[in-house]
From TrEMBL:
InterPro entries: Cro/C1-type_HTH (IPR001387), HTH_LacI (IPR000843), Lambda_DNA-bd_dom_sf (IPR010982), Peripla_BP/Lac1_sug-bd_dom (IPR001761), Peripla_BP_I (IPR028082). Keywords: DNA-binding, Repressor, Transcription, Transcription regulation. GO terms for molecular function: DNA-binding transcription factor activity; transcription cis-regulatory region binding. It comes from the Bacteria. It comes from Planococcus rifietoensis. Residues 2-56 form the HTH lacI-type domain. PROSITE patterns: HTH_CROC1, HTH_LACI_1, HTH_LACI_2. Residues 3-47 form the HTH cro/C1-type domain. Transmembrane segments: none annotated. This is Transcriptional regulator.
Length: 326
């Protein structure tokens, strides 16, 4: 097996020079760098990743912390993160926190011991100072942590305006809004968008806080439809909640979209699989994950990052849970 000494001998330089070049840990002249590169290629030398992490206190590992892997939105994000990371030579370690701050903190501490290069986080269960104190590159995806950590997010407020107006334009007079958890920035932005749109319309509405979980959403909507049979429109802050609402409507014998229209938020693939297909405010999930990964890698490699906030446009996708405009 080729060793670093073999590379140094072939290149005509010292072992220390080869080490500095491979680890990016010090000055190496252009001639020496060229000689080492040619020697590495000719000898097909591969640097042991474990040894490299011990030397540099950094590996090629990226931690991706997700709050709920059962929500289809997050696996779609993870796919983008992994695709881009691999193209840059990084490997992704997936951590599912189950929305548990203690579990999230344990993941962070464990990964730091593995010389993780940086984190992408899609949860803000922990206090912002905890992230700031990690002293590692971090990018927040769809969640804001603090002003020092770059954020990649959709235009959630504008999306909520689009979703609410879609129901209003189709004649809804009594709209139920399933707002997400109040601790989440995207849910709050979507709430603001709903209030902005509904405030310009002369219709009844009610708001209930609803977790981004299918079963919980179904139960909440069953209760609300039972208490107020006049509800003729539902705008949900996530597609998972919208799917739960659709299930509740079916169980209660409410025809969708003739009697009840539903619009979700996310644009995940699951929406196309439902019957009828789910109308939704679609985020470019893959683009969000890809941008977050590229920004993180720039931070890891000490390259300039042009922006601290990246906002991705959304679009309204109409399917079978809404009627045609009258």
């Amino acid at each position: 097996m080729t060793t670093i000494r073999d590379v140094a001998k072939k290149a005509g330089v010292s072992v220390a020079t080869v080490s500095r070049f491979l680890n990016g840990s010090g000055y190496v002249s252009a001639d020496a760098a060229k000689a080492v590169t040619e020697a590495v290629e000719e000898l097909e030398y591969e640097l042991n990743p474990v040894a490299r992490s011990l030397n540099t206190k950094r590996s090629n590992l990226i931690g991706l912390i997700l709050p709920d892997i059962t929500n289809p939105f997050f696996p779609e994000l993870a796919r983008a993160v992994e695709d881009v990371a691999l193209s840059y030579g990084y490997t992704v370690i997936l951590c599912n926190s189950d929305e548990d701050p203690k579990k999230e903190k344990n993941y962070i501490e464990t990964l730091k011991k593995k010389y993780i290069a940086g984190f992408i986080v899609t949860s803000n269960q922990l206090e912002a100072p905890h992230y700031a104190n990690t002293k590692l590159p971090i990018v927040a995806l769809d969640r804001a942590i603090n002003e020092k950590i770059p954020v990649v997010s959709s235009n959630n407020k504008e999306g909520a305006v689009l979703g609410t107006n879609a129901l209003l334009e189709r004649g809804c007079q009594n709209i139920l809004f399933l707002r997400g958890p109040e601790a989440l920035n995207p849910a709050n932005d979507r709430y603001e968008g709903f209030m902005e749109a509904i405030g310009k319309a002369d219709v009844d509405h009610r708001i209930v806080t609803c977790p981004f979980h299918y079963a919980d959403s179904q139960k909440i909507v069953e209760r609300e439809l039972h208490n107020d049979p006049g509800i003729d429109g539902i705008f949900a802050s996530s597609d998972v909640s919208a799917a739960g609402a659709l299930k509740a409507a079916v169980l209660l014998g409410r025809n969708v979209p003739d009697e009840l229209q539903i619009v979700g938020f996310d644009g995940i693939a699951m929406g196309e699989m439902l019957s009828p297909g789910l109308s939704t405010v679609a985020q470019d999930v893959y683009k969000m994950g890809a941008i977050a990964t590229r920004v993180l890698i720039k931070r890891i490699e000490n390259k300039p990052v042009e922006e601290s906030f990246y906002e991705i446009p959304v679009k309204l996708v109409l399917r079978g849970t809404t009627r045609s405009v009258e």
